[in-house]
């Protein structure tokens, strides 16, 4: 089932272990063809216009972009940025098993319907989606790579997954704001120690002057343009490295 918006993007619905889930799909120009796929995992506010815009930007680099509605169990598709309390309730209800059920369903859909295997698919997540991206890295799915933008709750909290680091078999790129109160210095140190101990190939860029959500240009009070641009330069270089172009 699909709901087409215009030629290059649409909403589709895929089956998951917990019922149907809507997924926003943005495609690169047909003349390019996708060189791989990128799962864009939402902040705590749903697959809103900002996340859809991120997906569209990803297609400019030749990737098929898919943004699954990880809130599908709640029936709430989007929240405003001032609905922080409601957002915290929604993400508190989504533990690792639910996240993996959803991302696994998307990876299987891409392999089956788009002929893009996990090995040619990367995961990029923001805020709650950063935690979800890190969680996906522990699944054994052997994705091409995972990028975590300011993902709180990885090292501590009810859904922490740092104890699963030994299961990570994909390269990681992490972006953390040095002024982010949701990921304090001891969490940063714990993440680095666990990844190093597990032998994970990773880069962790701690941006000293940035806080939480520094790459979200829909939130002027959070957005740090120079830091966001730097983080995206590193991200696209990482994606090109782990998913090199398949065409000449």
From TrEMBL:
Residues 21-242 form the Dienelactone hydrolase domain. InterPro entries: AB_hydrolase_fold, Dienelactn_hydro, Dienelactone_hydrolase-like. It comes from the Bacteria. This is Carboxymethylenebutenolidase. The lineage of its organism: Bacteria, Bacillati, Actinomycetota, Actinomycetes, Kitasatosporales. It comes from Embleya hyalina. GO terms for molecular function: hydrolase activity.
